[in-house]
Amino acid sequence: MKLYGGIEAGGTKFICVIGHGPDHIVAEARIATTTPAETIGYTIEFFQRHAQEYPISAVGIGSFGPVDLDRSSPTYGYITTTPKPGWAQANLCGAIQQALHVPVAFDTDVNAAAFGEHYWVPENRALDPLLYLTIGTGIGLGVIVNGKPLHGLLHPEAGHMLLPHDRTLDPFVGSCPFHGDCWEGLASGPALEKRWQQRGETLPPDHAAWQLEAHYVALAVVNLIYCFSPQRVVLGGGVMQQPGIIDRVRGAVQRTINNYLQTDRITRDIQQLIAPPGLGNRSGVLGAIALAATVARMNHAPE
Ligand code: ADP
Ligand code: ZN
Q1: Is 106 helix (H, G, I), strand (E, B) or coil?
Q2: CA nearest ligand 1 atom 15, residue
Q3: Who is most buried in 24, 95, 242, 277, counting CB within 10 A?
Q4: Cα(75) to centroid of ligand 1, in Å?
């Protein structure tokens, strides 16, 4: 059984695994995200320590970003303009590749998560496009189209989309350092906390926060449905752990579309369209394994 390395490179921690798939993980480590030298150093050490017992055929990385995914660019595989101290222009992919000498697949954390959901969750295999949204410390979108993660000009940055913001109903100015009241500025975990002066975890289920949160998430999801015509929208991230929030989003999506799109997956079976992650909170790291399996196959394919 072939083994692959998977790295979910997050702004607070790196999760590293060695395995073959969701039910076959043989080693795992969590490494705090400090400086690039230290964090990437420990990451490399993890794989080297296990190399004898668990040799890997390829590594997949799903990284926080923005990242450079353009293979013809001199900064391919770099984290680019992040405000996270020390990490702007960090050559994550190159450092891993040079140390481990195996093919490396590199993508955004959310594209990796989307790929994981598509690749490992049997019912999602036939659902394309598939969108994966994380609503947590930030808001991010991963997109699978024709079975592959979407890159394009850079990569999707749907967390910064602009939404109608009625300041008489919601005077909060937003928390995005670049745009103020973009979607992430209005509806990320830190935005919730700033608006209500309390973390999402501690806000009671009947608090007005949840209706407003579902409203913003639904507006954005409706925009994404109009743009991508997805067959599945997976809603992940910490804020979506809030009990009942997904059902509120589903209802608000239906009301916003207002019967304009006549398909059972919207009008009747919307739980089929908008769903929690099939892999729980493991979509990212298991997606990284799936990216590794794919790049390993490509490297062995006849020309
Ligand atoms: P990250 O985005 O950093 O990977 P998470 O997806 O866990 O991490 O998101 C963290 C955010 O989610 C925090 O802002 C936290 O307050 C919020 N959060 C976590 N659990 C809940 C919950 N049950 N309800 C609402 N918000 C939550
Ligand atoms: Zn923004």
Answers
A1: strand
A2: 189
A3: 277
A4: 31
Alpha-carbon span 41 to 114, nearest angstrom = 27
Whether residue 159 sits in one domain with residue 174: yes
d(CA 274, CA 269) in angstroms, rounded, equals 9
Residue 246 lies in a domain: yes
Surrounding residues of ion ligand 2, Cβ less than 5 A: 160, 176, 178-179, 182
pLDDT-derived band of residue 301, with 50, 70 and 90 as boundaries? Answer: low
Say if pTM beats, i.e. exceeds, 0.85. Answer: yes
Q: Are residues 34 and 175 in the same domain?
A: no
Measured in Å, residue 179 CA sits from the centre of ligand 2 at 4
Q: Which domain holds residue 210?
A: 122-277
Q: Name the CA radius of gyration of the chain, rounded.
A: 19
137 CA: nearest ligand 1 atom: 2
Phi, psi (deg, nearest 5) at residue 20: -110, -25
Question: How far apart (Å, rounded) are the C-alpha atoms in residues 261 and 14?
Answer: 41
The domain that holds 250 is classified in CATH as 3.30.420.40
The tens digit of pLDDT for each residue in 1-49 reads 899 999 999 999 999 999 999 999 999 999 999 999 999 999 999 999 9
Tell me the pLDDT band of 299, cut-offs 50, 70 and 90.
confident
What is the average pLDDT score of the chain?
97
80-99 residue pLDDT tens: 998 899 999 999 999 999 99
- What is the number of domains present in the chain? 2
Q: Is residue 248 part of a domain?
A: yes
Instruction: Tell me the angle at which helices 208-228 and 245-257 cross, rounded to the nearest 10 degrees.
Output: 50
- Assess whether 74 and 165 both reside in one domain: no
